[in-house]
Amino acid sequence: MSTTLEETPLEKKAPLLGLSKPWRMALYAFAGLVVLSLIRVITGANDLTSAGTVNAAVMLAVPIGLAGLGGLWSERAGVVNIGLEGMMILGSFGAGWIGWQHGAWAGVLMAIAFGVIGGLVHAVATVTFGVDHVVSGVAINILGLGATQYLAGELLADSPGGGETQSPPNSGLPKPSIPGLSGLLEPLESKHWFLLSDIAGILRGLFTNVSLLTIVAILLVVLTYVLLWQTPFGLRLRSVGEDPHAAESLGVKVRLYKYYAVAVSGGLAGLAGGFLAIVASNLYREGQTGGRGYIGLAAMIFGNWRPGGLMMGAGLFGYTDAMQLRNAVAVHALLLVVFALLLGLTVLNLYRRRWISAGVGLVFAVLSLIWYLNTDELPGPITTMTPYVTTLLVLSLAAQSLRMPKASGQVYRPEGK
Amino acid sequence: MNKLNADTARRIGLSVAAPVLAVALSVVITSIVLASAGNDPVETFTQMIEYAQEPRTTTLIINAAVTYYFAALAVAFGFRMNLFNIGVDGQYRLAALLAAAVGGAVELPKVLHVGLILLVAVIVGGLWAAVAGLLKVYRGISEVITTIMLNSITTALIAYLLTADKLAVQVEGSNNIGTPEIPASGRVGGIDLVPDSKLQVYGLIVLAAIVGFLYWFVIERSRFGFDLRATGRNEEAAVASGVNVKRMVLISMAISGGIAGLVGMPQLLGASYTYSLDFPAGIGFTGIAIALLGRNTAIGVAIGALLFGFLDTSSQILDLEGVPKEIVLITQGVIVLSVVIAYELVRRYRIVAQQREVGRQLSSAAGSEDSKPQGAQA
User: Does the interface predicted TM-score (ipTM) exceed 0.85?
Assistant: First the structure.
């Protein structure tokens, strides 16, 4: 193979303390935990790391993560998928419609199937007809919304307990916990000790009442990584997203791979919608997706078009969202977290001699500290901004090192056509 | 000479063919969807068309189209430079809120008052969009993501600002809440455009026409527009010819947002005079679809706006007839998709025709020499 598809780092950095990447990530994560815990102890906002928050965060992160994973598949094969939102809507309707009649698992399958249909429409438009990807995506968002609202009027209006805008409830899926864990960790968490209670809270949140579909979602992230980065199939698929003409010259069936990728993308987005209708709630409701398809796309970009980064992005969204839903005091404490984060980055920037970035970071750090000190609580509507502001903030600090698949968004036309 | 005319005729025919093909296709698909649920497609469309001809409905269609036109032009301006401004929705809502607040707070002579409100709207929309522009230029974040985030932030910001102790007051006789009403000097009266209609067409239709003309002029006839289109088509070539792309991105984003600021104005100055909780939302997204349908040209977008205005307004009759009115969303989605597919098909047909033509000319010119058509890739 003459084309290497390894990610090339944009700038060579001296590895921190000479550690390899996994260890470095673990170190960052641990440092973050210490900071979070410290701030919890200072502010007394125990919801920062409570089991309830973590559990809610996972619940909110999964649909975003699945949608983002859908975006990742599609973009890795060079097709931008703005239509994730529409495919999610289709999925949530499929799950709601079939879920109450034939059980939750049938609903899950239907959600995936509906999503795949949306994906295939996108594939026909973008791959076969060479339509601009964004155009097709926008059309699919309109179509998904229209089709479900129309179908709901025809199929759900007369159902028992349902109506034109919602389906009857379904039975849901089991939510197993690791036996004994909760009893073991809860006393520790309620002591509110530094670090130990935080770890207990997070573990308890992660391992109790975990929906089976959440486990499926996490397996799908792992599976995506293995398939796309560890197999010949994945190499070909990504080569299509980097340089389709080179891939073609090596005998890769470019269009076929794009079809695979976009269909899988639709299926994942559909599953994300299904999660909303089966796990996050127990029915399909109009407007249920609430723009999560777009947020998923943001999470994917945040994650640099990689499964691991995507999970972090989705987790960040889920976490700030959960915080915002549960406790205004905790969101207020987040200001202090932002301050700590920015301060850390400023120090890092100073160390790397990036003066301007350091200056901007410092100004914002001081601003958030002043804001924190002068208020007791954030007004409700302001707290709902948290996830979006956080995303903007994190992206503006990290966007330079992102690299999207090279041919993403470009219309591919085979040689000679 | 004759051949030239035939060529022109065919070219015009081809460019009309695509949209016509698209609308026809979407009617067919909508009909299939309708029929498969046991509704009579012919009757459904007949009802919509008949309803649209009532003077009241016609007025409503034109009014909807005026609003859509601003939204679509805002999106189209960005598209011309390969900027995807999904944030029109947030930009016009924030602009309308602040413009309404300013308009309701001051008392000025007529022209000045209206001018001030419009100016505030344009500036707010422009600045809000410029945030995305700045983040793109200086931090390299895709405007697609930032404008999506800004939309959500706008929603929260409006919820924060539109409270009784900030910008809003209780609307009389309801539990709605809105900005203080704009006094008569800040309102724009309607025009009796449709005969026999009790309703009037928004006076700001004139502004829509002016903005449409300016859009055409700036994009097609000015140096700035040339740079803009060049940057949109081939950034590297534009840079090589001395275009400052960063500046272009910032300015175009701000202009797009400025036009977006006008979206709420016909409604605000011509009908509601206040920004309240039920101020229409989501028009920005309709604007995206219309801009795509109209191929980002001033005329095309106008036709698209009228078409969407027709579909949205006259579908209201369907609910009375037992057909879910959301069927028109399917029609709209299919139109957007099929219009671009149709353009693609026409493009391919053109290339093949061109190649055949070149081939024929070459073979007749070079006699027996076997030459392949080249350079027909578009």
Answer: no
